[in-house]
Amino acid sequence: MSTTDDAIQERIDQDYKWGFVTDIEADAAPVGLDEGTIRFISAKKEEPEWMLQWRLEAFAAWKKMKEPHHWAQLQYEPIDYQAACYYSAPKTTNAPKSLDEVDPELLATYEKLGIPLTEQKMLAGVAVDAVFDSVSVATTFKGALEEKGIIFCSFGEAVREHPELVKKYVGSVVPRNDNFFAALNSAVFTDGSFVYIPKGVRCPMELSTYFRINAANTGQFERTLIIAEEGAYVSYLEGCTAPMRDENQLHAAVVELVALDNAQIKYSTVQNWYPGDKNGKGGIFNFVTKRGACRGFKSKISWTQVETGSAVTWKYPSCILQGDESVGEFYSVALTNNYQQADTGTKMIHIGKNTRSVIVSKGISAGKAQNTYRGLVKIMPKAENARNYSQCDSMLIGDKCGAHTFPYIEVRNKTGQVEHEATTSKIGEDQMFYCAQRGISEEDAVSMIVNGFCKEVFRELPMEFAVEAQKLLGISLEGSVG
Amino acid sequence: MLKISNLHAGIEDTEILRGINLSIDAGEVHAIMGPNGSGKSTLASVLAGRDQYEVTEGSVDFLGQDLLDMAPDARAHAGLFLAFQYPVEIPGVSNSYFLRAGVNAVREARGLEELDAIDFLKLAKAKAKELDMDEKFLSRAVNEGFSGGEKKRNEIFQMAVLDPKLAVLDETDSGLDIDALRVVADGVNRLRNKDRGFLVITHYQRLLNYIVPDHVHVLHQGRIVKSGGKELALELEEKGYGWVEELAGAAS
Question: CB-side exposure of A275: number of CA atoms within 13 Å?
Fold first, then answer.
């Protein structure tokens, strides 16, 4: 081991910067999971009967399913679903109508997290639907959005206020029995975001939601549904941090996107949940189902993700390219350090004619982490002239980590064109020495080299997010090379 | 400014430098010539602090500091610059970002305020112009897709921006055609001044037609076997490295 390795390890070993717990009395469901739990959640959320039935059917499907442990490149202990609590809300009986009504302690927490919920940030044009534990606490900008007919609210509110839209689209992209975690989410989801962009409307600001897991031992099950009508456009940002915890916390979200004719949805994520300590203790289990349906002609869905947190990440934001000439994109940076494990990638399902997809995946492994890209490009028989370009690059930092690539390709139409490129590299001694000779410290050099490696993905992120993502990579990596 | 005394260094168990003694004063240009394997590049790497090389004996004093005790970045902060024989590519990182990080690290170490992006760009553009380089290359990734000549010019450009006290040029002429060689040499000559020292390492005499040295040293099997003025380079050119063998034989 060179001094470079040591210095880099030191940076890697830096403690999670955002670990703190806010003391707010939780209004929680009893521990365990049965039909009663689901009825409790549904009642708490004042849901209509159809929503309750929908949940119960999902629960019935879930009970017949098994936790996946075989195909993914992940190792984790089976989760005890009866030991978790499935509902916890900050204790406010009446929903706040403005920031003034929000619990100051909550606001202070958001301040610490740097969440732009304050007045100044209105100038920056960010509307925030903040999920604290399971209930949306405050929503800003509603007025400006309402003028354009845009609906941006918590999922719970959408169920009450816009049941026809929810009913029409919920579960239409990710069916309740799609997979184990999607089924679980469908049964017990507590809240999330709902976005509806009407025909021909371009959403005038980036919509942003900050998630935060807070109460101990509470699973977090958000559900997000975004619908872009004909010719609509929306850019949605999702970013998260979580306080320090010893127990593993389960997170199983479902995100569904629907793009109709000529509509565009851009969905960007920066994920920085607690990854566990340097010995692999604690950390969030992140089992997410994200999928977008390009239903309309020339519709486009673009996923951009920067994943630096969680002990276990299991996530494949995908696009179903149904509409002719529709476009799917997936840009991903996944960074794992210490004992983190990530199995992430995408699925591009080409159904319509002249559909196109682009996949750019950058995996970075440091410490003893394992990082897997798993992708599927499927060209169906009727998808004439479908095209895909995939690029999967892996970077290794140190010699105890692993990078794996599983690109599955299924082409059932001979006019299809699929390209796949893959590289694996190490941050070299040469690069480090070159930087050092120019006076650049080891930490800055690692951060610079890794950020350079991820550049193609970062340039897909909205500006503010890109800056945050770069910082996050620097912090998550503080110290690594060989 | 640089005083190398009885320097022994090697890689793993192989000793490559076997007792180097060399002093460079401010304003001087020293050339080190020698056949392949004589230890030229090892000397450059050891001075810059590359950690594959182990120093087993001797000392190096740089501006009153123990150079061998300093980390590579600290050596850069103190004013040592190495123009690499094989400049390294850093994909996705622009030249200007890279170099600004370097300049500001050096400035910070010297207690100067850091240059913001605008001031840095002014400086970089001015230097690029002096070296007759297209400023577009500032936004290109560090050495990525650069031709051999471009890489070497980039080294000289970085040197100009970093403004070192001592510049070590490790076979900067290798792989250059005569035009590129002239450009690089012009760049170096422009940076010559009474405060700056140069150590020019080369295999061929031709570079020294353009960068005229004050002193020439001949390196053979890890030792300096002959030193002289600029005419020594010509003599060496004429007699070939076989002559060095004879010198070494006579010296031992």
Answer: 30
